[in-house]
Amino acid sequence: MLRQLINSTARVTCQSQRMGIQLLQPRCYQSTSIDEDKTTATILNQETDSGLMVDAYSQAGFRLNNGMKVLGPIAIFPRSVLSWKVKSAEDINEDSLSLFHMLEPKIDLLVIGVGDKGNKVDPRVVHYMKNKGITLEILPTETACTTFNFLNQERRYVAGAFLPPISLRITDEDLVQSQRRRNKLFLSQDEDSVF
Amino acid sequence: MVRGWARLERLVSAAQNGRIAQCQLPKRKRKVLPRVAGARFCSTEQTLHPTIRPVNAVERTTLTEYGQYIAECMPKYVQKVQITAGNELEVLIAPEGVIPVLTFLKDHTNGQYTCLTDLCGVDMPSRAFRFEVVYNLLSVRFNSRIRVKTYTDELTPVDSACEVYAGANWYEREVWDMYGVFFANHPDLRRILTDYGFEGHPFRKDFPLSGYVEVRYDDEAKRVVVEPLELAQEFRKFDLNAPWEQFPKFRDHVPAEDIPIKEEKE
């Protein structure tokens, strides 16, 4: 387990808890079907027509709910995604955010994922964007992805600007999912060390 | 309610038959005060007036002595100890002492306040340190509650209680969102109740009741827009104080009585 971690640190992916769960309550009208009494739960990211959502993130990039994988920082919109040319949270300045205030129709809210928890964004940039009329929501990338997913599902005019985080919390579930994705789930790792 | 009545009747009948036992008050000289778990139910007075809350002197003395004990154990942080009229113990501490005092109350054998029932803020704009952060704790072992209060202003962070009580997480997020009190070392401090793009801290006294912005659906733009507030009627402030005194018997009433703490003698 540990050896696999060391070999593939760059490629370790995190299953996003950003996959929110949407509960659908049954409508309150008379119905003869028995099954309509049940509350159903669906995964937010897998709903059709809900717009682009971030399924998972890693130190390398992001995976979206339409199957696309993007490496590096991204600028994500309700139906499209771009790669974003920013090195780190300190590099976020008026130029790097210039795209977001030039969009038509104007977005309500810009969610900025700054990577790790402690990274700061220049307060002057925050003021600059507020003067342009765009409210910012500055969060660590993990929670920023979740917030963007929820807002997108609500059909709000929101855009996201995410930096991949450096430090990740990896669970066993994440490791199993990434192995399954690479079709290596049932291969034994012990034999590798012999060769 | 029925239980309360039944208990009262039992007490009355027991008093009439001379069966009430005297409760042992803990001796003052002992270092470690034993907690009397059943202090609440002991009463040596006959209270026949059902609408007047009976004064529980035993509980009050137990709490007073426990408050003094806490002040003696943690003299660095405990600044004041109070007890309210309803026998609620309040410990006022310095903001640096949040983690030590909460750990002491949670883990000490005489405290065992393992349950954080509430964490809230209070805004008193007339003070220098305008925000109070209040922790309400419950000890299931001793059936006892205690309140711990700290103070801070808009910019000074307070240590997060999450490492002591895991349940403090969302409460501290709420205090941050509503008042703007920053909690250092909080695992995930972000907004919890306000809308995503909301600016301001609504529970502050200088934040107006109806806010600064309103939302409406704009038919031309086919979206919800946020605009500055426009009230159809201007704000009316009602003075609801009656010209007559409400409680003439309580003119000298103090909400919380100070418990004397022994000063450190060098």
Features:
heterodimer; A: 195 residues; alpha+beta; five-stranded mixed beta sheet; four-stranded antiparallel beta sheet; 6 helices; 11 strands; B: 266 residues; Beta Polymerase, domain 2; six-stranded mixed beta sheet; 4 helices; 20% helix; globular; NADH_UbQ_OxRdtase_CS (chain B)
Q: What is the mean pLDDT of chain A?
A: 79
The portion of residues forming beta strands of chain A comes to 15-25%
The CATH homologous superfamily of the domain at 57-193 and 253-259 in chain B is called: NADH:ubiquinone oxidoreductase Nqo5 subunit
Strand order of the largest sheet of chain B: 3-4-5-2-1-10
Secondary structure: number of strands of chain B: 10
Helix content of chain B: 10-25%
CATH topology of the domain at 57-193 and 253-259 in chain B: Beta Polymerase, domain 2
**Helix-strand topology string of chain B:** HHEEHEEEEHEEEE
With strands numbered from the N-terminus, the spatial order across the biggest sheet of chain A is 8-7-11-9-10
Low-confidence stretches of chain B: 20-30
Number of helices of chain B: 4
Give the end-to-end Cα distance of chain A, rounded to a whole number of Å. Answer: 17 Å
Largest sheet of chain A: 5 strands, mixed
C-alpha end-to-end distance of chain B: 52 Å
Q: What is the CA-based Rg of chain A, rounded?
A: 20 Å
Helix content range of chain A:
10-25%
| Rounded radius of gyration of chain B (Å) | 24 Å
